[in-house]
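Protein in question kept underneath.
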Amino acid sequence: MILDFFKTAANLKKISRQGWIDKLSLKNPESVADHSYSMAIIGMVISDLENYNSEKILKMILLHDLSESKIGDYTPSQVNKEKKNKLENNAFNEIIKNLPDLIKSQYLQIWQEYQENNSLESKIVHQIDKLEMALQAKIYEKDGHPQEKFESFFESAKIDITDPKLKELFTKIIKDMR
């Protein structure tokens, strides 16, 4: 039961982030697991600095892309939001179905909270997702990929990041990493 859950989660190491493939034609982009790990580090530090619920934020980060271990990483150009949510919800329910009831219900609640994006923690995690994307875009840009290919990533992050601390970090990523 639990081992199946671990195997499924480990599969995220093999799932490439599709946006980098589509927009940059990268042959070896970061994996979803790479992205989740980087988000977890950011989330841990921000949670501790701002005295947020670190455990909840870290669990939400670790669960937020788990469904992609079964369905892959879809971009908005590949599938509409409603269909993506349905695919992700079905995959998530399948992934957690054999976990012990106590943690299954806890993970499902965290997952639903993330999907609904109406709590402080879910709003922060969504913004950390965008911040991490901007950070990775800057890393790829510094690796020599054309700057103009990143504008849509930076614009998306600029619009969606509203938390003052995260906005400050975003500005530093954009300016200081030149």
In short: The chain has one domain: 2-176. The chain has a mean pLDDT of 94. The longest helix spans residues 120-142. DSSP finds ten helices and no strands in the chain.
